[in-house]
Design a protein that fits this description.
single chain; 380 residues; 2 domains; 18 helices; 7% strand
Length: 380
């Protein structure tokens, strides 16, 4: 009896793939492998991996035992021939799909599996094996990093409450946060700069902040009062230059649109580079204890006037134009406090963010003799 999950047309295609694999066209091969049509696949490969064909990804997996593959590339190849690797399902959807598959008759499951194996080339089969091996290695590294991070967190919670945490809690601010403006826009949910991407970034930002603050004793209490103002206006801010953004934020400030506790002397910018960042697009959690190489945000002085303060061409503040670039975790546990306490000037912040790896250390880091970003807010 034929399963309702397998149409007569698909059964005929699978049986032909087994009997005569050479007769299968590229479009039919994609259909067998549960991939979208070749032209759609090409567009998805370009948007996902910046490559134009599946062969390029396969070729990357073959040398060095697949060690050149990143996690997303290895994941994609590892499920090729099993399900559509472009498809992202929720846990409930995955469980429902799995239930449908295991309820199919054994002969149908075997026919699907054998036909997929028949149309895969030797290089594709080898790439799939190498991808699995690479996934094992990457997952092992992730587990090791997770264990190290948990050990560091345990050590952090043995320390007294940090001075900056205590001072902000003692201030009993009704809220604390930033004005965050959006300068990149796109049409359709598939655009990297779409409204959906903007919504995802807000969730990504809040997850990063909550995670960063929870590492500090007392940070959980402080995070409960975090509240930023998110500004999105395509008509006035799409591709806006810094001068336009400064004027917009000053106008908000003058109109009383920035609530107490939200900084009025600085704003953050979410531009196209941020929304296209792979760490954000792959929703990879940011490690606050080692922020080097992570996604960075522009932090801008709304009152900076280039006509009054020209860009220095030499010295420690060379290139300073009234803004700095800050790793996302440091937005929460360094940047806000320096404005709250008035502990550092814009030029000092600029210098600090240019010389990452030098400067002070936390007591935690000093115990392990490991350098950290040079942020003096970390006094205990």
């Amino acid at each position: 009896m034929e399963s309702s999950n397998l149409s007569a047309e698909r059964r005929a295609l699978l049986e032909r793939a087994l009997a005569d694999p050479a007769s299968i066209t590229p479009a039919e091969k994609n259909e067998i492998l549960l991939l979208p049509p070749p032209d759609v696949e090409r567009e998805l490969l370009i948007s996902t991996f910046q490559i134009a064909s599946r062969d390029e990804l396969v070729a990357k997996a073959l040398p060095n035992g697949g060690a050149d593959l990143n996690h997303e590339e290895a994941r994609w190849l590892s499920i090729l021939g099993v399900k559509n690797p472009f498809e992202r399902l929720t846990m409930d959807e995955s469980l429902a799909r799995f239930g449908q598959r295991i309820r199919r008759p054994n002969d149908v499951q075997e026919l699907e599996s054998n036909a997929m194996a028949a149309v895969l080339t030797p290089d594709e089969n080898r790439a799939i094996r190498e991808a699995w091996n690479q996934l094992d290695r990457l997952n092992e590294k992730r587990q090791q990093a997770r264990s190290e991070r948990e050990a560091e967190i345990r050590e952090l919670h043995k320390l007294p409450r940090a001075k900056w945490i205590q001072e902000m809690l003692d201030a009993a601010l009704p809220r604390w946060g930033f004005v965050i403006v959006r300068t990149a826009y796109g049409d359709g949910n598939d655009s990297p700069c779409s409204d959906a991407a903007w919504d995802r970034f807000q969730a990504f930002f809040k997850d990063a902040g909550g995670f960063a603050l929870h590492l500090w004793k007392g940070g959980k209490d402080l995070w409960e009062t975090h509240e930023s103002v998110w500004v999105s206006d395509r008509e006035t801010m799409d591709g806006a230059d810094t001068a336009t953004l400064r004027a917009q934020v000053r106008a908000m400030r003058a109109a009383g649109q920035i609530p107490e506790g939200v900084r009025r002397d600085i704003f953050l910018v979410v531009d196209e580079n941020v929304l296209r960042n792979e760490q954000f697009r792959q929703n990879r959690r940011i490690m606050p204890l080692n922020p080097r190489g992570t996604i960075r945000l522009r932090a801008v002085d709304p009152d900076h006037d280039p006509a009054v303060k020209p860009v220095p061409t030499e010295g420690p503040y060379e290139g300073f134009d009234g803004e700095i670039s800050v790793p996302l975790p440091k937005v929460f546990d360094w940047l806000y406090y320096t404005f709250f306490a008035g502990s550092e000037s814009w030029t000092l912040r600029y210098h600090q963010t240019k010389v990452e790896g030098e400067g002070r250390r936390t007591r935690r880091v000093a115990m392990r003799n490991k350098p950290i970003m040079p942020y003096p807010a970390y006094e205990l």
